Task: structure prediction
Amino acid sequence: MDEAAVLASETVPSPSVPVVVEARGLNVAFEADGQRVNALTGVDLTISRGDFVSLIGPSGCGKTTLLRAIADLQTPSGGTLTVNGMTPTEARQARAYGYVFQAPALYPWRSVARNVMLPLEIMGMSRSERAARADRYLRLVGLGDFARKFPWQLSGGMQQRVSIARALCFEPTLLLMDEPFGALDEITRDGLNVHLHELWRRTGMTVVFVTHSIPEAAFLSTRIVVMSARPGRIIDVIENPLGATRELGIRESAEFLAVAHRVREGLRAGHSYD
Amino acid sequence: MIDVARGSAARILPVVTVLGILTVFWYVMAIPLNAPRLDLDETAGLSTLARAAWSMDRPILPAPHQIAGELWSSVLFHPLTSSRNLLYHAWVTLSAALAGLAIALALGIALAVGIVYLRTLDRSLMPWVIASQTVPVLAIAPMVVVVLGNLGITGLLPKAAIAGYLAFFPITVGMVTGLRAADPLQLDLMRTYSAAPLAVFTKLRWPMSLAFLFPGLRVAVALALVGAIVAELPTGAQAGLGARLLTGSYYGQTIQLWATLVMAALLSIVALLVVGAVERAVLHARGGRL
Result:
């Protein structure tokens, strides 16, 4: 890794804002077909409360692996990783985060409302509180009228919104999203991006967002982490100069295009390593 | 409504057609099969021959209307508690089959849960489960009855044990598949909630497995009835469709024999309809799809 990249990945948080995720020299390795694959090497990253951090990079760069390590769905093989000052396992047990997967992963035998209530049931919330929360968060994602429907009766975009409501309903302060809109068409995706941005701005939660899409990363993020494959690593961290309130029109602005350009350059530089 | 009517007509028509062809074939075949036992002079015409062949007391092959008549008079003209009423025998067999099905469900599900959750059980038990089905039930039924009889256990329970022995297999196989059917994402989701193993079972694996339970249950119902009937054959049972079949064949009462067979078939059809109704009710509660 060259010096500029090292400098770029060393972000210094301001002391007043609490750190949510901190990775130092993080390594993750798998055994695949008897071969050791370095999914992530030497990742240093600090995410502060209220950040919207996008992880972007080509397939195999370890962006999903990094998210799964934060969620304690993947065990690191080296370095340190803390979530809310705890180990990832402790943070998971404390139900510190909500996770949105690439696919909605709804349970098909549960109605929309009961899918949203699933984490609340597991966490032992009372029946009336569960119903109130499901109603509130389904309204928040614009699906208030669909509570009694079943997943198969909804479009892909609506299903993914249900899964977002399900991740939000127990009110975690950290939201981890793994390419949540990757399988959706452009228009649906735009709509959900605006929605997600509004949600983030209103709640002030911390979001870590994995994506393939440069415009999506530039539109949503306060910081964009550019990653590269083989071995998976961070090659650039870009502070997004766009203001806190954003609309889709902002994507035509010079500032936006400059951010997108820098992300693209970073991705291209990452590719030239092969 | 019209669509529904047309749909059920479209479903019934092929069945009725096949039934019609079978009935005609049956009547035709009854003539040569029964003719050697008839004492007719050589000049008798075909119509005389047919009328005689279709109305014998103990034919080789009774005509359909004879079987229907036997069924009819047996059910309607004898009290339900009489051993001459086929419904009485059907109930004796059905109660054993239902008890066997309950045993099969309890055993089948318990085995499946053990096999899915305990690796050692998967390795040690599954081969035995499969091997158990290669032993012919006719060979094992008398032994079970004799052994349990020596222990003082008679009546319904030995029959239920044999019915359960046959019926647990499709339930176990279906449930093992079903309990393992949750995809990795659905399991990861549970992990993000730090869900306890019991919650993963009750909220994910169990509801998931119901879709795999019903196909197994349909096979199990038919097997439980077969098991109950077979269990009545070698034991000198006084009641039940199996006992009725046995006395029918002892005394050459072919009409009684066939009427009993038809009753057994009707019983399985009713049992399958009940399972189908339960499945539809579950389906409805789960939004129309399993």
User: Anything to note?
Assistant: Strands of chain A lie at 19-32, 35-48, 52-56, 78-83, 97-100, 174-178, 206-211, 223-228, 233-239. Chain A touches chain B through 28 residues (CB under 8 Å). Chain A has a mean pLDDT of 89.
